Amino acid sequence: MPIRAYCTICSDFFDHSRDVAAIHCGHTFHYECLLQWFQTAPNKTCPQCRKQVSTRHIINKLFFDIGGEGEGSSADPECLQNELDRMKAVLSTKERDWRDRLKMLEGLKETVDRQKKDLDSVRKEIGEKEMLCSVLRKQMKYLENQQSETQAAKEEARRLRTKMKTYESLDVVLQGQRAEVESMISDMGVGQAAVEQLSIFCISLKK
Ligand SMILES: [Zn+2]
Ligand SMILES: [Zn+2]
Q1: ipTM of this predicted complex?
Q2: How far apart are the C-alpha atoms of 10 and 30, rounded to whole Å?
Q3: Smallest Cα–Cα separation from 201: which of 173, 162, 177, 159?
Q4: CATH number for the domain running over 1-66
Q5: How far is the CA of 49 from the centre of ligand 2 (A)?
Q6: Extents of the domains making up the chain
Q7: Are 48 and 6 in contact (CB under 8 A)?
Q8: If we measure between CA atoms, which residue out of 23, 49, 48, 47 comes closest to residue 36?
Q9: How many whole angstroms from 55 Cα to the centroid of ligand 1?
Q10: Which has the higher per-residue pLDDT, 188 or 130?
Q11: Are 188 and 194 in contact (CB under 8 A)?
């Protein structure tokens, strides 16, 4: 049964990609893992058996004679298992990446949805304001019409009042005493208006 040795620091199986180191206690680790361990550990001991270690006694690189690189090694179940484990690790990393990206995408979608909603509400508000504006414009037009009608009515009232005054004066001329007529005519004063007024009286009396 072949040995499926692995590094107890990182739990990866040994392969050709990374150097394997050994301590004098006999335990083996990836060389990089061991260096990292010594950098972070308070004192230099074997990660597995806790024996004191001096860096001088580390064998930096072990050489394994693995039979038949070309023939049969690819069919070696150990080798295939290692490869499979490595692939599984790669796959799980990719899956994690994929999940992260999916989550990010969902976040972006949410943001877009929210902004769409905001835009819709702003559009709606604009529509309402425009409607209000047109209502106000209509009211304004109506009020303007009212105003011009009022103006016309006032004009008419003034005209009627003048006419009324003329009739009243005519009444004085027809029925009044001489003194009253005199005072009325002298109230008219002199000028074009007075002349017009007097001619109106004359024409009316003729009728
Ligand atoms: Zn390792
Ligand atoms: Zn040891």
Answers
A1: 0.86
A2: 8
A3: 173
A4: 3.30.40.10
A5: 4
A6: 1-66, 73-160, 161-206
A7: no
A8: 47
A9: 17
A10: 130
A11: yes
